[in-house]
From TrEMBL:
Enzyme class: lyase
Swiss-Prot/TrEMBL GO biological process terms: photoreactive repair; response to light stimulus
Catalytic reaction(s) noted: cyclobutadipyrimidine (in DNA) = 2 pyrimidine residues (in DNA)
SUPFAM superfamilies listed in its UniProt record: Cryptochrome/photolyase FAD-binding domain, Cryptochrome/photolyase, N-terminal domain
Residues holding FAD: Y227, T239, S240, R241, L242, S243, F277, D377, A378, D379
Protein's UniProt name: Deoxyribodipyrimidine photo-lyase
Bound cofactor: record note: Binds 1 FAD per subunit.
Sites marked Electron transfer via tryptophanyl radical: W311, W364, W387
EC number(s) stated in the UniProt entry for this protein: 4.1.99.3
Flavoprotein keyword on record: yes
UniProt GO MF annotations: deoxyribodipyrimidine photo-lyase activity; DNA binding; FAD binding
Length: 481
């Protein structure tokens, strides 16, 4: 009887405990993936994530085939697919790696119960986190709500285990795909058709396990040293850009953690750069901790007082924001980077999110949805937790009254305007002194740079000072004096 491995957000061969356990069993291995958009509460993937998933599945299939196994693809409610596989293949066991969103956990519990009652061994493993949500607690045994004590308590539980090697050979099993209802990858219809908006994504990313390895290697060689200071500069290339690989599990946090430790030990970067990078991995862990203990994180304000916040409704401004047409260059550059490449630098994510929430006074969930649809790393935990962090409604959030000034942020973190020039080419020739505030330049300076505000580039859709006062006024409505 074969052993089945259910792939989900762990699309890799190396450091994959479910796959390693199946291989160690000595039985033949049947690997499968289910695109489930129907089970209760499951959030459908956004367009950019689907694009990534398509390529991640293609490369996983190739890697599995090279090792001797295959990847079966299905669509539909996971519980039904698993039942079909169980009756057709009569496996001895089904293994998978755990997920932490409420809908996913619920499906997994049902599947586990179904399999057990049919006498099939079902076992799950941790492949996605350094510290699973229930292993880190306050002294009183409660979930954590503040990052610094969370991270301290997590670290105190011990070093993350070393990663497992990829299996060299996998004993596959010939199966009748047709009778199982297995689909071809194209039948999952994950790629955009018309219009094909994915050209920029194709030019930017290699969404495979080997692409992840290469990205990690080049980050450790070129980005880790100086990461602490460089990570805030969107005009530089200091961050790892591993987020989509971590999101889809093409690299594990344990692999990243240990590779970074090793690089620092070899003298490739000082300890404080390493610690800063590891703390960012810690924010990912913290986000999962929050999601697990607060399953509605993407929809409900963590702090209920924000339920009464007087959000505006303004679809024209929401659209201008999403298209990068606000008239604030750093904001527009960020949103255009997102649209063109499926990714945005963290500093600019904070600036653009703050702008939507505080300058435009639009509900953070509008931004969360847009990022969910357009990011290749759209993550159920990090996206929701980060949006709530910026909104001030989250756990351990930035206070609402801290309002990013998009001009000063641009001048500080993109001093020459290189980032703006790259993603907002119509401002490419504006002198550095005005590239973050073109409206402040004299008409002849703008004319020389080929810019006509309101024509070639938008005039600001809100006035910064006015918007700032309006945001603070709105906050007073939910803050008793
Ligand atoms: P690096 O700086 O190289 O960090 C390494 C890894 O640590 C990242 O790949 C990521 O997995 C993790 N990480 C870093 N910063 C954070 C953070 N603040 N919170 C959680 N994890 C972090 N990250 C996502 O992975 N998916 C999202 O959907 C997402 N949405 C965000 C929305 C907003 C409004 C904001 C402000 C941040 C969001 N982030 C999200 C967090 C962060 O911006 C990205 O993880 C980071 O920019 C990814 O780039 P990197 O891989 O080069 O990061």
């Amino acid at each position: 009887r074969p052993v089945c491995v259910w792939f989900r957000d762990d699309l890799r061969l190396a450091d994959n405990p479910a796959l390693a356990a199946a291989n160690a069993s000595g039985a033949s291995v049947v690997a499968f993936y289910v695109l489930d958009e129907e089970s209760d509460g499951i959030r459908r993937l956004g367009g950019a994530s689907k694009w990534w998933l398509h390529h991640a599945l293609a490369s996983l299939r190739d890697d599995l085939q090279a090792a001797g196994a295959d990847l079966l693809l299905f669509r539909g409610p996971a519980r039904m697919v698993l039942e079909r596989l169980r009756t057709a293949l009569e496996p001895a066991a089904v293994f998978w790696n755990r997920r932490y969103d409420a809908a996913g956990v619920a499906v997994d519990s049902e599947v586990k119960a179904d399999l057990k009652s049919a006498g099939v061994r079902a076992e799950s493993f941790n492949a996605a986190l350094l510290y699973e949500p229930w292993t880190v607690k306050t002294a009183a045994g409660q979930p954590m709500k503040v990052f610094t004590p969370f991270w301290k308590a997590a670290r105190a539980t011990g070093a993350p285990p070393s990663p497992l090697p990829a299996p060299r050979a996998l004993p596959g099993l010939e199966v009748n795909r047709r009778s199982l209802g297995a689909l071809a990858l194209d039948d999952l219809r994950l790629l955009p058709t018309r219009p094909d908006w994915a050209g920029g994504l194709r030019a930017t990313w290699t969404p495979s396990e080997s692409g992840a390895r290469e990205r990690l290697r080049s980050f450790l060689n070129e980005g880790l040293r100086g990461y602490g200071a460089g990570r805030d500069r969107p005009d530089q290339d200091h961050t790892s850009r591993l987020s989509p690989y971590l999101r889809f599990g093409q690299v594990s946090p344990r692999q990243v953690w240990h590779a970074a430790e090793h690089a620092a030990a070899e003298g490739q970067a000082p300890g404080d750069d390493l610690a800063k990078f590891q703390a960012e991995l810690g924010w990912r862990e913290f986000s999962y901790h929050l999601l697990f203990h607060h399953p509605d994180l993407a929809r409900r304000n963590f702090q209920p007082k924000f339920d009464a916040f007087p959000w505006r409704s303004d679809s024209a401004q929401a659209r201008a924001w999403s298209r990068g047409l606000t008239g604030y260059p750093i904001v527009d550059a960020g949103l255009r980077q997102l649209w063109a490449t499926g990714w945005m630098h963290n500093r600019v994510r904070m600036i653009t999110a703050s702008f939507l929430i505080k300058h435009l006074l639009l509900d953070w969930r509008i931004g969360e949805d847009w990022f969910w649809d357009t990011l290749v790393d759209a993550d159920p935990a990090s996206n929701a937790a980060s949006w709530q962090w910026v909104a001030g409604s989250g756990a351990d959030a930035a206070p609402y009254f801290r309002i990013f000034n998009p001009i000063l942020q641009g001048e500080r973190f993109d001093p020459e305007g290189a980032y703006v020039r790259r993603f907002v080419p119509e401002l490419a020739r504006v002198p550095a002194a005005f590239v973050h505030k073109p409206w402040a330049a004299r008409a002849d300076v703008l004319a020389q740079a080929g810019v006509t505000l309101g024509e070639t580039y938008p005039a600001p859709i809100v006035d910064h000072e006015g918007a700032r006062s309006r945001a603070l006024e709105a906050l007073r409505e939910i803050t008793p004096t």
